[in-house]
């Protein structure tokens, strides 16, 4: 059985680089954990997929957080990823439902709305750098391309897609980034644009139809010769633990903790993965002692 993975490679005899990722199982796990509607699944799935692509060039335990702060009904979409292929994320309003676009596609742009895209990089020394750019369309791939161009002066082509079935399951999800490298000619850029422009199948359908990443890449790249340099596993993975949530409880103080207690216990829920953690009265008293 196929599993999610991220591939990195070159094309046009080294004059461009690409990153391709299959995220079908990862996005399905996010959908299941958060109980999301199709349009929420598509929005978070695209953002998590784009996050994995941008995170693939990070070093060691660095991480990247992407936040879509739009005025649409989803209110906010957040994803965090690292170069080990781990990603987590959530939408503020997971049940949002909107009519399909005339094309029959989920209206991610309307669900996200317009506003700012914030990109934060957490470096190995603990420093965090955040860049903000206005969103172009809320369709996410275009917004990330715009971010890369304006904040990092890198021109790119990006495809992100999530195919949600009528029963809400994710049938296919994935993404592709192509960036010209120094030495790329005008013809190279035209060849890339023309290849991506002539695809008559969306990337999420290509992922769903392909038996392997290599097959998907051949269909995506067409006549453009490409070379695979690296393959990495990809999965939905959260960093929460009961200990970490205890530290959060310490930070809200004795009164805050007292407010959380009902029926001699309290429950904490992780935003990122929707895992529920129960704290007994005894545990809460111990935590209060650390405040
Ligand atoms: Zn979690």
UniProtKB/TrEMBL annotation:
Predominant location: cytoplasm
One cellular component (GO) term of this entry: cytoplasm
Pfam families per UniProt: HSP33
Keyword Chaperone attached: yes
Record's keyword annotation contains Zinc: yes
Gene3D superfamilies attached to this UniProt entry: Hsp33 domain (3.55.30.10), HSP33 redox switch-like (3.90.1280.10)
Disulfide bonds: 238-240, 270-273
Entry's Gene Ontology molecular function annotations: protein folding chaperone; unfolded protein binding
GO BP terms, alphabetized: protein refolding
Family annotation (InterPro entries): Heat_shock_Hsp33, Heat_shock_Hsp33_C, Heat_shock_Hsp33_N
Compartment(s): Cytoplasm
Domain of life per record: Bacteria
Modifications made to the protein after synthesis: Under oxidizing conditions two disulfide bonds are formed involving the reactive cysteines. Under reducing conditions zinc is bound to the reactive cysteines and the protein is inactive.
Regions crossing the membrane: none
UniProt keyword list: Chaperone, Cytoplasm, Disulfide bond, Redox-active center, Zinc
Matching CDD domains: Hsp33
Record family assignment: Belongs to the HSP33 family.
Function field: Redox regulated molecular chaperone. Protects both thermally unfolding and oxidatively damaged proteins from irreversible aggregation. Plays an important role in the bacterial defense system toward oxidative stress.
Protein name: 33 kDa chaperonin
Organism from which the protein derives: Desulfosporosinus fructosivorans
């Amino acid at each position: 059985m196929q599993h999610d993975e991220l591939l990195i490679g070159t094309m046009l005899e080294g004059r461009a680089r690409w990153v391709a990722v299959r995220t079908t199982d990862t996005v399905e796990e996010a959908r299941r954990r958060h109980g999301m509607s199709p349009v929420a699944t598509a929005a978070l799935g695209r953002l998590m997929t784009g996050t994995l692509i941008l995170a693939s060039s990070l070093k060691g335990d660095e991480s990247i957080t992407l936040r879509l702060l739009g005025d649409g009904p989803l209110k906010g979409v957040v994803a965090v990823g690292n170069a080990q292929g781990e990603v987590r994320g959530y939408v503020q309003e997971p049940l949002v439902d909107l009519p399909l676009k005339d094309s029959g596609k989920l209206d991610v742009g309307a669900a996200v709305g317009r506003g700012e895209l914030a990109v934060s990089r957490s470096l190995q020394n603990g420093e965090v750098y955040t860049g903000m750019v206005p969103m172009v369309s809320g369709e996410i791939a275009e917004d990330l391309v715009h971010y890369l161009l304006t904040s990092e002066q890198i021109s790119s082509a990006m495809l992100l897609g999530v195919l949600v079935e009528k029963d809400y399951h994710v049938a296919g999800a994935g993404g592709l980034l192509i960036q010209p490298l120094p030495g790329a000619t005008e013809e190279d850029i035209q060849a890339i644009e023309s290849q991506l422009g002539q695809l008559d199948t969306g990337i999420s359908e290509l992922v769903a139809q392909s038996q392997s990443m290599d097959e998907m890449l051949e269909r995506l790249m067409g006549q453009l010769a490409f070379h695979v340099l690296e393959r990495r596993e990809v999965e939905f993975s959260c960093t929460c633990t009961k200990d970490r949530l205890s530290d959060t409880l310490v930070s809200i103080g004795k009164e805050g903790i007292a407010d959380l207690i009902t029926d001699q216990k309290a429950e904490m829920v992780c935003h990122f993965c929707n895992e529920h953690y129960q704290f007994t009265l005894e545990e809460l008293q111990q935590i209060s002692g650390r405040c």
